[in-house]
Write a structure and sequence with these properties.
Shape of chain A: globular
Number of strands of chain A: 4
Helix content of chain A: 55-70%
Distance between the termini of chain A: 51 Å
CATH architecture of the largest domain in chain A: Up-down Bundle
Strand order of the largest sheet of chain A: 2-1-3-4
Number of domains of chain A: 2
CATH topology of the largest domain in chain A: Glutathione S-transferase Yfyf (Class Pi), Chain A, domain 2
Oligomer: homodimer
């Protein structure tokens, strides 16, 4: 039996990232589903694991760890999957650079489009429907466009020769940074906003390459399973969107 | 001659963190001062190094790296100062957890107290004096109090026994995370807000321990040199603050 317990809800994009990484890297783990919609992540027993009351978290023996970027790197290192953290010092540095940048550079703009678009149309669990200020929506859209341009320009191009495209964020092979970035962007498709990343051929190609690597490692159907809860959102959103048009 | 060039301005707290780390870890480097107040970080030649136009950045051969957390880890790894990234997989994970959390958990609340407090009293270079909404100031104060409590509770206590204080963020020895956290908090002293961290005996003790380690490694006067530009802010602020009382 595995010594790793993952506390997660596949509704959360960092949870999906850790889940997909473990599958793609063939690392066995015990699943501990935390239903965010039932606020299981705020219960006292879970606050012992993660005092911040957020998912994902992992427990290995007595050791508990939070923050998806740290969890991904730790599990790759613990289980000898070093390539996922980068083959060289420079490769790892480039991954760390992305992991540091993504919080304000990518995660924030993605969330600021995803959540308002969602609640502008539907109520889903704890997300209550609410009309969104069009000015705020326009600002969020512009910020996300900038983020995706920066992502393409700074992370999907070669370090030394800016004209040369590289395959993944760190270079030639997939890393934990790719998985985290993929989950962040893919979430937009649940609210019909996949146009943001599909507009960029480089980003679109990179997403297809990431998907291929995940299914190569985790097996066919890995992505479908990981995105099941997101699909519930997608279906409910699409129905409301269609009815209102 | 060193192969590392650091692009920095000691007015910026992440610049001070990288500078202090290099001094404390006795890693030689070439200094390339970028005067933020003259907007040298927006010049085309620097945008080749860091397209985001921010400091710090490092260049080693052809390899350029941005994002202070990534830079710190990279330089420690490159120069064989592995203890600064954590002696064990778990120690490094705990450092990575802090580095991930700090952006929204610590940096944002510190900045949201520092900048408005500063510009409420003085104009300093590109910071233009402006009256601040008292409600906004009160919210920022509360957020910073919460951040410092979380920092003490989650990062300065033992992982397995929450009652046991540990010496540094990762455990028994100083790491890159301590340097980054120290610079973030210390900056508050320039605008008379050191009360936020001095109120907590654990945080106050930890700051003294970090200072001791820096001076042990970098030599007496290292902190004074690193904080020289911040002292200019402090003096100007104190004069304005005194005049207005």
């Amino acid at each position: 039996m595995s010594d790793i317990t993952l506390y997660f809800d596949l509704l959360s994009q960092p949870s999906r990232a850790v889940y997909l990484f473990l599958k793609a890297a063939k690392i066995p783990f015990k699943e501990n589903n935390m239903d965010l919609m039932k606020e299981e992540h705020k219960k006292p027993e879970y606050l012992q694991i993660n005092p911040a009351g957020q998912v994902p978290a992992v427990k290995v023996g007595d050791f508990c760890l939070t923050e998806s970027a740290a969890i991904l790197k730790y599990l790759a290192s613990l289980k000898g999957k070093k390539d996922w953290n980068g083959k060289t010092v420079e490769y790892e540095a480039r991954i760390d650079q992305y992991l540091s940048w993504q919080q304000s550079g990518m995660r924030k703009p993605c969330i600021e489009v995803f959540i308002p678009t969602l609640i502008n149309k539907i109520t889903f669990g704890l997300f209550i429907q609410k009309n969104i200020d069009p000015k705020q929506a326009e600002d969020a859209k512009k910020a996300l466009e900038v983020a995706i341009c920066q992502f393409e320009d700074r992370y999907l191009k070669s370090l030394t020769d800016k004209k040369t495209k590289i395959k993944f964020i760190g270079g030639s092979h997939i890393s934990v940074a790719d998985i985290l970035a993929y989950c962040e962007l893919y979430q937009l498709s649940a609210v019909g906003k996949e146009g943001f990343y599909k507009k960029s051929p480089a980003v679109k190609q990179w997403m297809a390459d990431v998907e291929k690597e995940i299914e190569n490692g985790g097996g066919k159907g890995t992505l479908e399973k990981a995105n099941k809860r997101l699909c519930e959102v997608k279906e409910k959103f699409a129905a409301a969107d269609g009815a209102k048009k």
